[in-house]
Structure formats: C-alpha cells, structure tokens
Amino acid sequence: MFYREAGDFKTSYREDSQTFPIKFDRLRYYVVLAIAFGIVPLFINDYWANAVAVPFLIYAIAAIGLNILVGYAGQVSLGTGGFMAVGAYAVYKLMTAFPEVSIFIHVILAGGITAAVGVLFGLPSLRIKGFYLAVATLAAQFFLVWLFNKVPWFYNYSASGQINAPERTMFGVFVTGAQTSAMAKYMFCLVMLTIVALIARNLTRGTVGRKWMAIRDMDIAAEIIGVNPLTTKLSAFAVSSFFIGIAGALFFAVYLGAAEVGEAFGIQKSFLILFMVIIGGLGSIFGSFAGAAFLVLLPVFLKNVLVGTLGWPTDLAAHIELMIVGGLIVTFLIAEPHGLAQLWRVAKEKLRLWPFPH
Amino acid sequence: MPDIVLYAAEVTLNGLMAGVLYALVALGFVLIFKASGIFNYAQGVLALFAALTLVGIQKGQVPFAHLINAMTGKHYTNFPWEVPALVAILLTVGVMVVLAIIIEKVVLKHLVNQAPIILFMATIGMAYFLEGFGDVMWGSDIKTLDVGLPQGINETIDSVTYNMFGYGFFIDNLDIVAAIVAVLLVAALTVFSQYSKQGRALRAVADDHQAALSVGISLRFIWILVWSIAGFVALVAGIMWGSKSGVQFSLSLIALKALPVLMLGGFTSIPGAIVGGLIIGVGEKLFELLIGAPFLGGATENWFAYVLALVFLVFRPQGLFGEKIIERV
C-alpha cells in the first residue's frame, strides 16, 4: 500500500531515470537527509559523535567502497586496511606539504592517490580469481603497513613514528585537530558520505555498474558479450579504493587525530569492513549503511551492558564481546546469508501488499 | 668458506625448520578445503584453542574461572592436581573432536550450498568466537607449554659443524622434533587416506560431493571426520608453536603465515602445503638476511611471503600443485 510502483507515472525521461524512481524511496531519502543534516547536529555531543556517529559515517564510506569491489564486481579483497592507510598517509603528507589548500581537496586527492595504488594492486586480479585473489590482496595489506612503518618520509621523520593531524579549518570552523567540535566532525563526514553514496548509487545503476555485475556473475561470459575485463576490473578497483582512501583519510584526520599504522589500519580493520559488507548485504548500497551501523553499534551496546550494567572486568567483557560478535556473525550468515539488505527487500515486498495478504 | 655463505647456510636450515611449522598449519587448511571447499580461516585459532586447552588441562586450571569469579565473587584458579602430558594431549584430542562435532551441527549443517565467501565469512565468525571462548575458558595471560619436548641448541650439530667449518650452526632441538613430527604426520595422513575405508571416503568426497553421496557416503560424517583431523593437526601445530614461543593470542596469527604457503602450493594439495611451506620458510629468512635487513630496514618477513606468492601466482594461477583451473561458460 505504501510502497508501490503502480500509479507512479513518469512523464519525462529525466523523471524516469532519477536516482530514486519510486516515490516512497524518494520520500524516505529526503526524510533521512533532513534528519541527518537538520536535526542530529543540534543534539550531537562529544560522546555520541566519537563513539557512534563519526565512526558510523566513516565506516559507511569504507563499506560502500568495499561493496563496489566485492558485492558489485565480485573481487574479494582483504586489503581494505592497507588502502585506508594509503588514504590516511596521503592526506597527512598533503596537509603538511600544502597547508594553504583546503582540507576538502586534500581528502579528495588522498582518495585519488589511493585509487592509483588500488589499481596497481588490482592488476593481479586479471590472472588470479576467487580465494587466491583474496589472499593475494593480503599482500597489499601487509606490504603497505610495513612500508608506512619503515619509511620515515611518510611520517615526516617524527620520533614516535606516529602521524598527527594538524589543525585545519573549513569556512572558519575547525574540522581537524584537537579543537574540533563534535558537530563539525559530524557534518564534515556526513557531507563526504552523502557525496560518496550518491556517486556510488548512480555508478552502480549505470553502464559501469552493469559491467561490474556482468564480470561478477561470470567473467568469461561477460568477456564474450563484449565487456572488457581489464578496464572493468581495474575501474572497480579504482572506484573502490577511491572511496576507501577517503574513508581512511577521514578516519585519521577527523576521527583519530593521531594514528600508528599497524594499530589503526591492521588486518583487523580489513575484516571488520568486510563483515560490514557481508552482514549488510553484498551488492547493496543500503546494505553498506546497515552493516556499518550494526557493527559500530554492537560493541558500544555490548560494552555498556557488560561493563556498565553487569560490572564485569573489562578484559573479561572484551572476550565475551568477541564471542558474541563471532556468534552473531555466524547466526546472521545462517539466518540471512544475503544480509540486512535482504531483510529490507522482504519488508518492502510486505509493504507493497499491506494490508492485504495477497 | 666465507662467513656470509656459512651464515646463509645456517639461516637456510632454520628457514627450512620454520617452513615445516608453516606447513603444519597449512596442512589443516588443505584438508578442510579439499573435503568441503571451505576456506577455513579459523585454523589458526583452532591451533590457539587446542594449545590453550592442553595447557589448561595439564595445569589443572578451572575452566571459566574468570567468569565464575566475576559472577559469584569467589576466587577459583586451579584444581589441586596436575595431569601428565600424554593424558592431557589425549583429552585435548577429545575436546577437538567434540568441537568438530559442534561446528558441524551448529554451523556447517545450516550453510550447505551457500556461496564460498559466505562459508569463509562464517569461519571468520567462528574464529572470533573461538578466540573469545578460549580466553574466557582458560584466561588470556601468556602461558608456557611444556610437554617434555627437548629445547635449546642442538649440541651435536653445533660441534660437528664447528669442527667442519669453524663455525657452529645454531639449530633448535625443538625445530628438529617439529620436522620429524611433521614427516610422521604427513606419512600417517597419507596412509590413512590411501588405505583406510574412511580415508577413501574422504578422497571420494574431495573428488565429487554428489557422486560420493550417491554411493552412500555420509557427507556429514566426513565433515566431522575432516574437522576432527584438522583439529588434531591444529593441536600438533599448537604444541610446536606453543613450546617455542608460549601460548598467547599471537599464536592464532600463524594462520596468516600459512595463507601464502597455501597460495604457493595450491589450496588442494598436501605435498603443495609442505613444499610451499619450505620455500616460504627459506625464502623469507634468506630475503631478510640478504636484502631486507641491510637495505630495506628489516621486518620484511611480514610481507615477503605474500608478495612472493602473488608474483608466483601471476604466472601460475593455481599454485605449484593445485588442480588446473578449467573455466567454461
């Protein structure tokens, strides 16, 4: 009843090819945007921004990036942490080398640099497939982390080997550094996420996205019908790494402020983001959001319950949290292998018929 | 002989020994991948869990002591006994078999016919769970594992090489034991899979699931069997690594060391796991000695194996001994 295509007539090509062709979707999208831009910033405080909102926004960007590669183009990658590190170190070098340029441009440029690195590490995907490729991308993960650890030029020869985000402003408001307000962090990441999500949504609906999906479904068959595997696979790696690089840049510059590469961008990060994509739903932009939200909120929730309410020691709580997260992932995969996005699809089917059963 | 050659020879020998240990972990992967097509990321955590359980049983720890203490406010730590090493090992094997049954019943049974990536993710979920579970059950402090294996420098090799070259090779006794155990293990596995009824069923399943089902082989039994064997291999690997560097979280990271070994050797080949392990063990040690430490600032062992495997795969996508990948539309 609420969600239906019937009666939603399009009178121009423009209307027919808009981002959200169905009225309910469009409404929902505007409502979400209005809440995210208009209402949340009024109430956000440091705790909510640092524990929930900012990590969610950044992980959502990374998850969208990885989803393009794994969900749409079918190339499993475990190198996400390494690519995020490229974004972080690129933005750090740019910020310190060109202090007068806007941070916004730096973040975009960092994404571009990561895209180039991503294409480089994507080259083997033309020969290697499936799990062999997944393990091969681990080479990127370990090599990049090692590189940023060992070559002092990347961290400007600082004694601790850490990188620290200098203070930068946009429109006179601090967006990086210690003086940044919760609202500025939130808004900066939100703007980035909105741009990324719009680009991703439209790319995946268009020619590029269809080529990716053709390669995912069967690459030899796709090649026979005229999809060029070289450009398609590498464009997937480039776009995916571009988004992941932006996420890495934001993660370091806005969220952490200071980072040590092995700790912030280790292999655990790669797995975390892959989980977000899988739990959210492969090949779904909405799924990336849902997965990121789920895996950001779950540890916060568990920590509050186990340590806050039950008063258990933190190390024990951390282990039980691992058990619960692991258990939930397995349960999830058994109950709904297509992720949260599939639940949403089922809900939409129900909405289409409601209140009539057939 | 010049010093660097002798030194390189020593490093090569040590690399071979390390490679044997990688191969031990890789072996568990290959067994499961062959029999069920599951890429089992949890193999490293299985080794950690097995080693934790072994130490716990041996030292007579109270399982879940930390949790019980947190809930009741009491202070349990140990039972008033210690279990002999051999009995403890047998008990741990029992625990691993029970674990295999639980994994099959709770997880794998429900995931039949899912895409490989979903199964892979499920094993990562299991890895998280087992890691937390092992820590809750036995505590997360670093433990020493001693089942009576010889440790320390092998005096015979040291003195023989000293007399021959004027430079004594440092080879750990434990590594020698590990190499012998690995050879025995591979021999036993080969005999098992070639000559026993279950072993044949196992190979039949590895060859073709449906055909195996149609001649009356129970897939579920085979899966339990193969996870039990993988658990046993994990226990052996856990004992070796645990005796070498203590039982702690980092033990589960040996899974990451085993992955390039698998790529190099091929996911489906047991000899491949061994040869791949040896190549990587020697390769990364020599690279670190000759190029990594002098020119690149060291710690190249973290990524060398992966890059080697990556370059290798570009020329031979199925690994050294993997089955040739044939693709059809």
UniProtKB/TrEMBL annotation, chain A:
Q: How does it sit in the membrane?
A: Multi-pass membrane protein
| Ranges annotated as spanning the membrane | 27-44, 50-69, 76-95, 101-123, 130-148, 183-200, 236-259, 271-296, 316-335
- What does the UniProt keyword field contain? Cell membrane, Membrane, Transmembrane, Transmembrane helix
What broad class describes the main subcellular location of this protein? membrane
Molecular function per GO: branched-chain amino acid transmembrane transporter activity
Q: Name one GO cellular component term.
A: plasma membrane
Which locations, inside or outside the cell, does it occupy? Cell membrane
- Name the chain's protein: ABC transporter permease
Organism per entry: Thioclava pacifica DSM 10166
Automatic annotation (TrEMBL), chain B:
Subcellular location field: Cell membrane
Question: Is the keyword RNA-binding in the record?
Answer: no
> Is Disulfide bond there in the keyword field?
no
This entry carries the following GO cellular component terms, namely: plasma membrane
Transmembrane residue ranges = 12-33, 38-57, 83-103, 110-130, 176-196, 217-241, 261-282, 289-315
Q: Read off the InterPro entries from this record.
A: ABC_transp_permease, BCAA_transport_permease
Q: What does the record give under GO molecular function?
A: transmembrane transporter activity
Q: Which family does it belong to?
A: Belongs to the binding-protein-dependent transport system permease family. LivHM subfamily.
Recorded protein name is ABC transporter permease
